[in-house]
């Protein structure tokens, strides 16, 4: 087994995130803000804590980011009808244009990422990465492990 495979996957993820952040910065938005807009597009009406967990940031950090994005007219908070203390996040109509610009940059970046791969190689890479995700999502087996 190639022991460098895990490192290679992590390093590629780091480079992909950096490339994404650099591309969206040219649009006048930060990487975390762009990721939040894309997440809200996929999952509108979720609590801030949901998105903080999804984006792997502290809730206070997400709250400040939402404050800025709300001020710029991209995001709105609405009261949660089931929990008066919680706020649900939604995109505003103005956000649609920003999301379209982000997606165009994302398409170009993904095209660059896959440069030199034919369709069958892309499909095989996707299949293998999905398998890895499934393997990592499954709780580890505790066979043969003892606490004594």
Q: What report would you give on this structure?
A:
The protein has 148 residues and is mainly α. It has one domain: Arc Repressor Mutant, subunit A. Helix content is 62%, strand content 11%. It is built from six helices and three strands. The protein has a three-stranded antiparallel β-sheet with strand order 1-3-2. Strand 2 and strand 3 form a beta hairpin. Helix 1 packs across helix 5 and helix 2 crosses helix 5. The radius of gyration is 19 Å and the shape is globular.
Features:
6 helices, 3-stranded antiparallel sheet, 148 residues, Arc Repressor Mutant, subunit A, single chain, 62% helix, mainly alpha
Could you write a compact summary of the structure shown?
The chain is mainly alpha-helical.
Overall shape: globular
C-alpha end-to-end distance: 30 Å
Class inferred from helices and paired strands: mainly alpha
The ordered H/E elements are: HHEHHEEHH
Examine the secondary-structure arrangement and name the CATH architecture. Answer: Orthogonal Bundle
Helix content: 55-70%
Number of helical segments with 4 or more residues: 6
The side-by-side strand order for the widest beta sheet comes to 1-3-2
Parts with pLDDT < 50 across at least 5 consecutive residues: none
Rg: 19 Å
Enter the CATH topology name. Arc Repressor Mutant, subunit A
Q: What does the largest sheet look like?
A: 3 strands, antiparallel
Mean pLDDT: 92
Please report the total strand number as a whole number: 3
How many structural units, i.e. domains? Answer: 1
Find the CATH superfamily. Answer: Winged helix-like DNA-binding domain superfamily/Winged helix DNA-binding domain
């Amino acid at each position: 087994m190639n022991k460098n495979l895990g490192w290679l996957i992590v390093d590629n993820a780091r480079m992909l995130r950096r490339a994404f952040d650099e591309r969206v910065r040219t649009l006048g938005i930060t990487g975390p803000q762009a990721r939040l807009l894309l997440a809200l597009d996929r999952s509108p009406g979720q609590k801030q804590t949901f998105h903080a967990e999804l984006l792997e940031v502290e809730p206070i950090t997400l709250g400040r980011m939402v404050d800025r994005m709300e001020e710029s007219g991209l995001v709105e908070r609405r009261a949660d009808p089931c929990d008066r203390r919680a706020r649900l996040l939604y995109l505003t109509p103005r956000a649609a244009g920003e999301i379209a610009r982000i997606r165009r940059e994302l398409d170009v970046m993904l095209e660059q990422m896959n440069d030199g791969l034919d369709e069958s190689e892309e499909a095989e890479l996707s299949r293998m990465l999905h398998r890895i995700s499934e393997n990592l999502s499954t709780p580890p087996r505790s066979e043969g492990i003892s606490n004594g």
